[in-house]
Write a structure and sequence with these properties.
Cytochrome p450; globular; about 10% strand; three-stranded antiparallel beta sheet; alpha+beta
Length: about 400
């Protein structure tokens, strides 16, 4: 457990890096949406938390007042945060040229081209699980799918998988409460991708590293190559975004289906509903909460916010806002109207959304076809969720049923 000062009132003293938040944030956020939709804390050198859909929508489009140059809200003072992760740490107009250069690698055609490989990989992972009564849906499956896929897309050895998992945990989880852990991971990741770029200069390949090496940003009608800092930062953020969000969502999906047999049976009997179900699981188990830096004094949801502090956008809370969703605290795998913010909103909407949806579809289809009957092997209250900007179950102990 993290040794942190207990929260007395989440409206005036929230701590999104506490174990209490990790394990109970849906209930905390439900209370805040009604009682104090823009919360504040003196922790983290002063920070705000926005919980309602409309406020998050408006804030996300006001890039002048709310900058993306700092997206982390942690114990590190904003003046000390120097990491560059383009395009997510860029504001307009610098943001769009970098994003546009990366988008082609994640368009529907490119994603469809690698789907057969993902299906083969999922089959192999399920083969490894076959015959076991007890399995961890997170550690033995959900965390392996995106790690292996991103390794293939980077064109690196499969043996790098455990290291990728370690770096993601160190940077996005343990490193959020211990800054030195994050700094160490950041140095190692940047050195690794610098080395990979050097290798591709000597021997180009059909992979993301070569694509980023050759990428050009088009600005004012002229193009320029990415700088080395932009190349390393882009690869860094593709690794983080391509791994942690997907494994968190897939783990949450297995947790849900293990604890809701009617939903599991629905998808087993009507697999054509999986696409719609993924959207609902994205809504209900949205993993990402992102930060912004307040450039200038502003008003959010009727609440004044001060320049120089940071502000958290809770996409999970927005996706349970009763003014936008009927019965928001219920999972309806056949929900018809579902304009969720699971992939964010505005200029920084997830550029890998096509890839994530494909991974989820192939992984869930494969799992349900192989293991149509399974249940949680522990009490749901025993599941612990991750601390940090991406929330997912740490473990999902499952019992495979005959």
């Amino acid at each position: 457990m993290n040794e942190r000062r207990p929260v007395e009132d989440w409206a005036t003293d929230f701590d999104h890096l506490s174990d209490e938040w990790a394990n109970h944030s849906p209930d905390i956020l439900a209370d805040l949406r009604q009682r104090c939709p823009v919360a504040h804390t003196e922790r983290f050198f002063g920070a705000y938390l926005v919980t309602r859909y409309d406020d998050i929508d408006e804030l996300s489009h006001n890039t002048a007042a709310f900058s993306s140059r700092i997206t982390a809200v942690n114990e590190n003072h904003p003046d000390n945060i120097k990491i560059e992760l383009p395009p997510i740490t860029l504001d307009p107009p610098e943001h769009s040229p970098i994003r546009r250069a990366l988008l082609p690698a994640f368009n529907p055609r490119e994603v469809a081209a690698i789907e057969p490989w993902v299906a083969e990989m999922v089959t192999r992972l399920l083969d490894d699980i076959e015959g076991r009564e007890l399995v961890d849906g997170a550690l033995d499956f959900a965390q392996l799918v995106p790690v292996e896929l991103m390794g293939k897309m980077f064109g690196v050895s499969a043996a790098m998988g455990p290291q990728f998992r370690t770096w993601v945990d160190e940077f996005l989880k343990d490193g959020q409460v211990d800054i030195e852990i994050a700094r160490k991971a950041s140095r190692e990741v940047q050195a690794y991708f610098a080395d990979q770029l050097d290798q591709r200069r000597e021997q180009p390949a059909d992979d993301l590293v070569t694509m980023v090496l050759n990428a050009e940003a088009v600005e004012d009608g002229s193009s320029r190559p990415f700088s080395q800092r932009e190349r390393i930062g882009a690869l860094f953020v593709l690794m983080l975004g391509g791994i942690d969000t997907t494994w968190s969502l897939l783990g949450s999906a297995l947790f849900h289906l293990a604890t809701h047999p009617a939903d599991r049976e629905l998808l087993v009997n009507q697999p054509e509903l999986i696409g719609n179900a993924i959207e609902e699981l994205l809504r209900f188990y949205s993993p990402v909460t992102i930060g912004r830096y307040i450039n200038e004094d502003a008003v959010v949801g009727g609440c004044p916010v001060k320049a120089g502090e940071r502000i958290l956008l809770s996409f999970p809370s927005a996706n349970r806002d009763e003014t936008h969703f009927d019965n928001p605290d219920e999972v309806d795998l056949q929900r018809a109207q579902n304009r969720h913010l699971g992939f964010g909103i505005g200029v920084h909407r997830c550029l890998g959304s096509n890839l994530a949806r494909m991974e989820m579809k192939v992984a869930l289809e494969g799992w349900l076809a192989r293991f149509p009957r399974f249940e949680l092997a522990v009490d749901p209250a025993e599941i612990r969720w991750t601390v940090g900007p991406v929330r997912g179950p740490r473990m999902v102990p499952l019992r495979i049923l005959a």
